[in-house]
Design brief:
This protein is α+β, with helices and mostly antiparallel strands. It contains 13 helices and 38 strands. It is globular, with a radius of gyration of 27 Å. Bound molecules: alpha-D-galactopyranose.
Length: 716
């Protein structure tokens, strides 16, 4: 019945409207509105963006700044698009032609066709509205109907205008093993740019996620802001320009750096989507909007479950053999893990992969280390009751490899210049269809030969330098764009054949964390830094934009903190292990076995519940956050002490997201064997109202590097 309703009423509804002056195009989600107007000069302007208004109020909002600012005519600010026509004319005017809205299911897409009055050149602006999630996806199609190629030198996905007294930008920058450092600053006049020119591993120094708070810095629960992210696994650029009248323009898109694009006659250039959400209630709401969107639309199998895995990278590095691995399968089983993940070092024969200097590109089992092959390992793992997964880095090559010897022309490197290495390796030329076939076949042949491989970790350990493609010839300025397109082509083919295989996105730690890629991946590796104290900040940072089921968090030997602390930190994300458990004490083993069971029981709330960040590690010497199930019947609450001292006072924490009318029992869980909760409120029942207003004393003491996990369950 329900399906029938949707087929009838949500099947494609198309409205075609022709140009008239002063026409308004209203794009609304549950709580926000973006209002565009067509002026008498047929230019399309942004008249309003913010909280949804009463229908009659929109008529009062007219004019505004052009929604997709062009270059070469009267605009003196940074343009969204700049082109040079075939005849050398470096200007563009875009006038409204028509618009239409197509709705289906829970989202609708409005497209607005614009055309240059003097040249057969078109731009279509697209806005997909995810009504319930309060998320908008904006992108453009740029079409050359001229007879000769047109050069694009700027081609943004989106331009948003703001008009306020002040703007605060929150950005997330980093480096290897210190990803996602949050910095918030007021924007001053001029342009602040956040960008990547790294090609691959593009989020290595700067992620493509940000907040802009309007008028004043927003908190978790208060303030007006947008959260944004570009769905593109490559060079990106955001310009935040505050002009002479204090107007702010946020331009988002592919970084046009070294990337002039020659658009051929009849060719359409499609920009990646810029994803954004508006919140009138602080960063917490913005995060939850993005999490909802990500689970429903943005991440491969976003609402599905995830496996607890035992990885061997921290435990063995590349120093292993069959017997050692089989032993580890047993340890994985003992823990209660679902899968064993074999990391780097399993391949290469002429140049065995015994360190990171050789073997990359030669994806055959190392016959010395693994004489019986991958099939044997899969069987042995399954015999012990765990699945088997494997690490790959298919876009890269070591100069010491057979691949390098056979196909020097498949590698991105400059002629007449020395090769430049990152982690002793080079990047393959994914702009070349033959290389795309090769990368696809690495995975396809492996999965065809050993079909029960149940998980892949897809790594990418360097960015691009000294970059030149033998395949692209005179079109070098297309390299960065074509590389990312090539990567997506490979992933599209793989996903067509292997739609449900879980794949982890990894890039020398968290160098690739974007929604352009996550539609193909089930999770990502946030950082090679697994010290739990650092991980609290790193995972906290990612939690602003990504749901917990995508943020992998492994318990490893890194850091001197207790196993309990490490486990509690991993539990706030997608928990896994990368540690030798045969060094554990019997209590540690017992604790970990119980922890895996507990995690499996509570993970539906962590993965699919609503996240509330309660106390920020950036403000206090502790971090507190909670996940609440959709029906508000269960919640998991995490309390982490950082390097706290006696001078820290940890007061009560008011909870969020609970139903004030329900009654909740609070229980400390994940306790170490032989210890019991010292929290006065443990195992007591409170009304939701009390927990929201008065809160709980979560810390009995201020002991540094200790933690608690609490479960709240509704009382019948
Ligand atoms: C990268 C990853 C690590 C590990 C190594 C293997 O650094 O981030 O997790 O897989 O590569 O070489």
């Amino acid at each position: 019945m329900k399906k029938c309703f949707w087929t009838l009423f949500c099947s494609i509804l198309t409205v075609l409207v022709h140009a008239q002056s002063d026409r308004q195009i209203l794009l609304e989600t549950k709580n926000s509105a973006l209002l565009l107007s067509v002026g008498a000069n047929q230019r399309v302007t942004q008249s309003y963006f913010g909280k949804k208004l009463a229908p009659a109020d929109y008529a009062l909002l007219k004019g505004g700044r052009e929604v997709y600012l062009t270059a070469g005519m009267e605009n003196q600010n940074e343009p969204a698009i700049r082109i040079v026509h075939a005849d050398g004319n470096p200007s563009l005017e875009l006038q409204y032609v028509s618009h239409k809205t197509t709705s289906g299911g829970d989202s609708s897409t409005t497209s607005i066709l614009l055309r240059d009055p003097q040249y057969p050149f078109e731009v279509t602006l697209y806005y997909t509205l995810y009504y319930n999630e309060d998320v908008i996806k904006a992108w453009t199609e740029i079409r050359n109907n001229e007879k000769k190629p047109v050069q694009l030198t700027a081609y943004a996905s989106s331009l948003l205008h703001f008009n306020a007294d002040a703007y605060w930008l929150t950005q997330f920058h980093g480096d290897w093993a210190r990803e996602m450092n949050m910095v918030e600053e007021q924007l001053t006049n001029g342009i602040k740019t956040l960008e990547s020119k790294l090609g691959t591993r593009s989020n290595f120094y700067q992620t493509q996620t940000f907040f802009v708070s309007i008028n004043k810095p927003s908190t978790e629960t208060e303030g007006e802001l947008i959260a944004g992210s570009l769905n593109w696994t490559g060079n990106f650029k955001y310009n935040f320009e505050v002009d002479q009248r204090n107007g702010l323009r946020v331009i988002s898109g592919i970084n046009p750096y070294a990337s002039n694009y020659n658009l051929q006659p009849s060719e359409t250039f499609t920009t990646p989507a810029f994803l954004f959400t508006w919140s009138g209630h602080g960063k917490g709401e913005a995060s939850r909007n993005l999490h909802h969107w990500a689970r429903n639309y943005g991440v491969m199998d976003g609402n599905g479950s995830r496996m607890v895995l035992l990885n061997n990278w921290e435990a063995t590095g590349m120093n292993f053999n069959e017997a050692r691995l089989v032993e580890l399968f047993g340890e994985a089983k003992k823990l209660g893990a679902d899968l064993f993940l074999l990391d780097d070092g399993w391949f290469g024969n002429k140049y065995p992969r015994d360190n990171d200097k050789a073997g990359l590109g030669d994806w055959q089992e190392d016959k010395k280390k693994l004489p019986s092959g991958l099939g044997y390992l899969v069987n042995e793992a399954e015999k012990q009751g765990v699945k088997f997964g494997i690490w790959l880095e298919p876009e890269m090559v070591n100069p010491k490899s057979e691949l390098y010897e056979k196909h020097p022309d498949w590698i991105l490197k400059l002629p007449n210049r020395p090769e430049n290495y990152g982690r002793n390796q080079l990047v393959l030329d994914l702009t070349n269809p033959k290389v795309q076939d090769f990368v696809y076949s690495i995975v396809d042949e492996m999965l065809t030969k050993t079909p029960r491989i149940a998980f892949i970790k897809w790594d990418c350990n360097r960015s691009m330098t000294n970059t030149y493609s033998a395949y692209l010839g005179s079109n070098q300025s297309h390299l960065y764009i074509e590389y990312t397109r090539g990567f997506y082509k490979v992933m599209d083919r793989l996903r067509a054949k292997y739609p449900s295989l879980p794949i982890m996105l990894c890039s020398g730690g968290g160098g690739r964390t974007d929604y352009g890629a996550l539609k193909y991946f089930t999770e990502f590796w946030p950082s090679d830094n697994t010290d739990p104290l650092d991980r609290i900040y790193i995972q906290w940072g990612y939690s602003y934009f990504f749901p917990a089921n995508t943020i992998t968090a492994h318990i490893t030997g890194m850091g001197k903190q207790s196993l309990k602390y490490k486990t509690d930190v991993a539990m706030m994300g997608k928990m896994g292990y990368d540690i030798r458990t045969n060094n554990f004490t019997p209590q540690e083993l017992q604790f970990s076995e119980e922890a895996v069971k507990t995690y499996k029981r509570i993970s539906p709330v962590i993965w699919r519940g609503d996240l509330y960040r309660l106390v920020s590690p950036y403000e206090k010497n502790r971090a507190v956050l909670m996940y609440v199930s959709k029906d508000q019947n269960q919640a998991i609450l995490f309390n982490y002490h950082l390097n706290s001292t006696r001078s820290d006072v940890f007061g009560k924490v008011s909870l969020q997201g609970l139903d004030p009318k329900k009654r909740y029992r609070i229980k400390e869980i994940n306790l170490f064997p032989g210890t019991k909760s010292v929290i006065a409120d443990n195992d007591k029942v409170f009304t939701g109202e009390y927990l929201l207003q008065v809160g709980l004393a979560l810390s009995a003491r201020t002991t540094p590097l200790t933690s608690n996990v609490y479960e709240l369950t509704v009382e019948p």
